[in-house]
Putative oxidoreductase UxuB
Amino acid sequence: MSYIENLFSLSGKNAVVIGGTGELCGAMAEGLAAAGANVVLVGRSAEKAEARMKRISDAGGTASFEPCQVDSKDDIESLLKRVVEAHGSVDILVNGAGMNSATPFLEIEESEWDRIFEVNMKGVFLACQTFAKQMLTQENGGSIINVGSMSGVIPLSRVFTYSATKAAVHNLTKNLAREWATKKIRVNTLVPGFFPAEQNKKVLTPERVEQIMGHTPMNRFGEANELVGATLLLASDAGSFVTGVEMVVDGGYAAMTI
């Protein structure tokens, strides 16, 4: 194995991908598996997990599925216990479960606000807190990748609650990066630009798409596999001095003004 291959290799590592049954985190999970990691897909749909696990297996990787309610502390703690019992360590944690909504601000119900915060923010809080306790006991620490959003950097119209939750995730990530910087735990935010996925299809109206393309220098949406390179950098030894960053993968969206 060459120096570069070794730098990005995840051979012998265990990766837990919360939200791994979805489109974007599923692609990230495939990338982690292709680099040698044993991947645990976490989500609610065993059917979606089966399809993703087959793709990973067909490519020569290894993956398993664990069901979990991400906003439940008991469920998250049980998940960690099962993973450690089965694999011995957790070297990489991806927090990518998420919900979205396009409800006009004055019509947002308190229950909707609370539910999106429970999944998008509380879920990240619980997973970071729970899995970091394990990583702190490990000689090589670990890497935590929280999936953020461009709406957490620059507030976007029509997704008020989602934007607020993602901004909170970005802030928490930086705080934890500072907290654990000397403990061999790196914490970063992976920030996708516009990638068509199940949770945002409801807001991608023709007018919205035109606005997005007019603000994206590459003039196209991202494809899920285009998140893999950034994922591997943040997860592997190649990113050993990278913590507390917002790793933007957006086709130039954040660089565009007028």
Notes: The mean pLDDT is 95. The beta strands are 14-18, 38-43, 62-67, 92-95, 142-147, 185-192, 246-249. Helices lie at 3-8, 23-34, 46-58, 73-87, 110-135, 160-179, 206-214, 228-235. Residues 3-246 form a domain with the Rossmann fold fold (CATH 3.40.50.720).
